[in-house]
Amino acid sequence: MVQERTLPTFNTAKVQITKEEGLRLYEDMVLGRSFEDKCAEMYYRGKMFGFVHLYNGQEAVSTGVIQGAMRPGEDYVSSTYRDHVHALSAGVPAREVMAELFGKATGCSKGRGGSMHMFSAEHRLLGGYAFVAEGIPVASGAAFQSKYRREVLGDQSADQVTACFFGDGAANNGQFFETLNMAALWKLPILFVVENNKWAIGMAHDRATSDPEIYKKASVFNMAGVEVDGMDVLAVRAVAQEAVARARAGEGPTLIEALTYRFRGHSLADPDELRSKAEKEFWFARDPIKKLAAYLVEHNLATQEELKDIDRKIQALIEDAVKFAESSPEPDPSELYRFVFAEDE
Question: With CB atoms counted within 10 Å of each terminal CB, which end of the chain scores lower, N or C?
Fold first, then answer.
């Protein structure tokens, strides 16, 4: 069993959240979980092909950062090959994400990206990246242009913040160290969010790195580094809000290590035989959706019936997305070479 770190404690008494905000966070997490469950069903029914990596269990990270602290559609988001839920949190419609998974022309990447390459210029989604750590320098480029436009070109509206998501395995790659150094030097408005789910495919995190506490690596770059319980959306939201505020104020980047866990195997082709039953049960008991639901009910921010209404609403949305994807056209073969190069608008 992988050695478990003590999850950081979070004082919920300090949380200031409205009913509307709480329900929005709950709805976004349920959307992510339900969407991924439907992806698994469609994959095993032969509707999707290739590698499909699901996000089940990690919803508090995507929701807490993007919906809890950022401005979806205005701020930038960079993802990994586990990118469906980041896209949904960023505002990409479920129809477009599902159609992309089906390889249809109506997908957010026009059927050319599939599961690992979600992209939406409209929603400031910089892309999902199949190569480990590939999105880190791209995200930093987006953060640099925001800073350049504001400080050099005088565009006071250019206060966008970028969130760069990547896994624990990426924190051992060269791009991680090189880019964090530049981001700290230039005080870029970016959040480096490590989704530490304990496993880099089949390699246990503790076996792959000399110091498993990734957030401490921020100190060598004179950068803020923080550890957070990635199974608690309110804790993630609090940490992300502070980091976003610092970034918008010109105070530079933050490295956030969210301790989380994927409830399924590395991909839908993974039999998931390496992880122990005890390890899985430890994390299953910390389901972030159940945790938020209990908090909302306990603090009179929602009733059980209101939460069930959201569950039903999301299920209908997912079913609609599948029907849309199934009825959408395949990409036209005549456009095979289109979008290889940029086009004039």
Answer: C
Secondary structure of 181-222 in HEC code, one letter for each residue: HHHHHHCCCEEEEEEECCEECCEEHHHHCCCCCHHHHHHHHC
State pLDDT tens for residues 129-181.
Answer: 999 999 999 999 999 999 999 999 999 999 999 999 999 999 999 999 999 99
How far is Cα of residue 208 from the mean position of the Cα atoms in its chain?
Answer: 23
Which residue do the tokens 């929005």 mark? 24
101, 125 in Cβ contact below 8 A? no
pLDDT tens track for 215-237? 999 999 999 999 999 999 999 99
* Domain 16-325: which CATH number of 3.40.50.670, 3.20.20.480, 3.40.50.970, 3.10.20.340: 3.40.50.970
pTM: 0.96
SS3 labels along 288-304: HHHHHHHHHHHCCCCCH
Q: How far apart are CA 197 and CA 115, in angstroms?
A: 20
Please say whether the beta carbons of 58 and 260 come within 8 A: yes
The structural domains of the chain, with segments of one domain joined by +, span 16-325
